[in-house]
Amino acid sequence: MDLLKNLKMDTQKKISWREQQQNFSSEKVEFIQDQRILDFFDDSPILGMGDVEYFKNKLNISNKEQYTQCLAIINDKTSDIELFSIFDCLKNINKVCLSINKFLIWTPKNNEKVAEDYDQALFNLIQSIFKNKKIKHYFVKGLKGRHFNSASPTTQFFITNENN
């Protein structure tokens, strides 16, 4: 009986959270946060970091050494220290999209200097790293379980050089 149960599990198609949520509609649906990402980038090679699988067939995600764009999707448990290190390496890239599941960011110790509001705290961190850059910040106030943040993070930062 266990063998049959395991066989059923192995043969069933595994569907991602994004696909499950898109299937709630009978029409083809693109989440607004995903559409913002698609609209942001041009055809130039994009450095992909994190949970970018969904975008690999939609954008020019590349492993090439030459890129002027980056898409970083943070959808795993990550410390604030790791986040800073990752983003600090991206600060000289011309065009960066950071899409973050803010509920998975943790700190090893309490920091009294950080804003209590998650969105403001993240925005302050991003501003401290991407100085002299234009930053567009998108987030949903008071989520209260009405949005599926885990499928496609709703907290996003679109960063460009000031003159872009």
Can you describe this structure?
By secondary structure, the chain is α/β, with parallel strands linked by helices. It has a single domain (19-161), classed as Rossmann fold (3-Layer(aba) Sandwich), CATH 3.40.50. It is 28% helix and 22% strand. The protein is built from five helices and eight strands. The strands form two sheets. Strands 2-1-3-5-8-7 form a six-stranded mixed sheet, with helices on both faces. The protein has a two-stranded parallel ribbon with strand order 4-6. The protein is globular, with a radius of gyration of 18 Å.
Summary, kept brief:
This protein is α/β, with parallel strands linked by helices and 164 residues long. It is built from five helices and eight strands; from the N terminus they run H-H-H-E-E-E-E-H-E-E-H-E-E. It has a single domain (19-161), classed as 3-Layer(aba) Sandwich (Rossmann fold), CATH 3.40.50.
Count of distinct structural domains = 1
Order of helices and strands: HHHEEEEHEEHEE
List the total number of helices: 5
Shape: globular
Helix/strand-derived category reads: alpha/beta
Reported for the largest beta sheet, the result is: 6 strands, mixed
Give the tally of β-strands: 8
How are the strands of the largest sheet arranged?
Answer: 2-1-3-5-8-7
Give me the CATH fold name. Rossmann fold
Q: What's the rounded overall pLDDT mean? A: 79
The CATH class is identified as Alpha Beta
- The appropriate CATH architecture is 3-Layer(aba) Sandwich
Low-confidence stretches: 1-15
Strand content: 15-25%
Distance between the termini: 62 Å
Helix content: 25-40%
Task: Give the C-alpha Rg.
Answer: 18 Å
